[in-house]
């Protein structure tokens, strides 16, 4: 052994110093990289309500793509989690309807439906989900528990009582999955349920392995959020080596809409004809520091994928569940949703309707959607 060791090349002290320096530098770079990608996020990231509005005059606020008073009855609801924005308006004695928007847009996206319902005599309540619009982003899993608590906070913050006679919920996209989760847990509180291109029953085949890897939790949060921000911002597919799957195509359609169906000119508020969903969503991405974090958390933890038995309790609701799907939606496939929802809820408890358009149809065709709803509700 001694003879073998004696044959090994000897390192001079100078070379030893170089090797030591190289090792130390490598370890330092690894440590710095881990620190950069694994920093502890703040518990609450304030919304533009705090960060942006405080620096603007009333005239400048009115000119924003998402004006803070775009609907009547605005209120900021304080909670142990943070502060979120809600709007409540319409006849006080009308049918009470809570509207829950999709994963990428603020509640402004359901303005067309809200205004149409008010014209039919309904009282509506819209809220910006955590991390969207003027609601703070919270450092908790964005799952059914968090969203259920937000709904309860919203209705209990109302000057009117929403619980004795029950209220109705309309949920769009992710909001549909959230609405179904809430109604399943509190069937006695929910009078009517309307699900528009809802998540919650999306079949497994629509989720590619690349997307599963992306949102698996293996990537550092800051790196994942940077990738998602580039995608939502309209970067080319070369921005990431992970192929876009059906879920992301649906999200993109929700954000961008279909110009041939008048998405950008959709009538959201009669007093603000220049306010569009696309403009508000772009502004949100640029000005809400917590939006991407909440978006990613919703993808990971909210009710999106089909889990057998998840909607079974909806058959206990007093009214039929109204479900609508777009005939060209890339992920909420009308035939699949029709079959799966009736198997889960019960064929006699579902009223199903196919609407012309893609995933954006509740935004682009609100009057048609509302006419169908009020016909079934009998108002």
Secondary-structure element pattern, one letter each: HHEHHEEEHEEHEHEHHHHHEHEHH
Classify the secondary structure makeup into a structural class: alpha/beta
The CATH architecture assignment turns out to be 3-Layer(aba) Sandwich
Oligomer status: single chain
Which blocks of ≥5 consecutive residues have pLDDT under 50?
Answer: 1-9, 235-243, 255-263
Look up the CATH topology: Rossmann fold
Radius of gyration: 24 Å
Supply the CATH superfamily name: Alpha/Beta hydrolase fold, catalytic domain
Can you count the helices? 15
State the distance separating the first and last CA atoms. 95 Å
Summarize this structure as a short list of keywords or feature phrases.
379 residues; alpha/beta; eight-stranded mixed beta sheet; 40% helix; globular
Describe this structure as you would to a colleague.
- This protein is α/β, with parallel strands linked by helices and 379 residues long.
- The chain has one domain: 3-Layer(aba) Sandwich (Rossmann fold).
- Helices cover 40% and strands 13% of the residues.
- The protein contains 15 helices and 10 strands.
- The chain has helices at residues 2-7, 13-37, 48-51, 58-62, 111-119, 144-156, 174-185, 209-214, 221-232, 246-256, 277-287, 291-301, 334-345, 361-364, 366-377, and strands at 44-45, 74-78, 83-89, 96-100, 123-127, 137-138, 167-172, 190-196, 321-326, 350-355.
- Strands 2-3-5-4-7-8-9-10 form an 8-stranded mixed sheet, sandwiched between helices. A two-stranded antiparallel sheet has the order 1-6.
- Strand 4, helix 5 and strand 5 form a beta-alpha-beta unit.
- Helix 5 packs across helix 15.
- It is globular, with a radius of gyration of 24 Å.
- The termini are far apart.
- 41% of the residues are buried.
